[in-house]
Amino acid sequence: MSATATCHCGACTIVVAAAPVEVTDCNCSICRRYGVLWAYYVPGDVDVSGSTETYVWGNRTVVFHRCTMCGCVTHWASPDPARQRMGVNARLLPPEVLAAARVRHLDGAGTEEYVD
């Protein structure tokens, strides 16, 4: 069953093929500042609409997107089209959809391993 995430102002919507079963709480330097929970998908299973601006840093393997109107972080994608993984900010999903997902904790600041 699909699920729809929206930014605060509603200008950006993300429709995912299925509600997430689990989401990731990463403690790396950017994720902890953004305050996001990531739900991972194959890019073909995600439909993003609305205007976003991007931010890229470090080794430039992840492009973060945010709504141009309200600034909510919506998702990240890879600049490499061969990479079949992207992250959707699950905090933009309806509360009942997010509540049904298991939260996993990723030590992105250190070991790059899940610690739960």
From TrEMBL:
Gene3D superfamilies: 2.170.150.70. It holds the Pfam family GFA. Residues 3-115 form the CENP-V/GFA domain. SUPFAM superfamilies: Mss4-like (SSF51316). Keywords: Metal-binding, Zinc. GO terms for molecular function: carbon-sulfur lyase activity; metal ion binding. It comes from the Bacteria. Coiled coil: none annotated. Belongs to the Gfa family. This is GFA family protein.
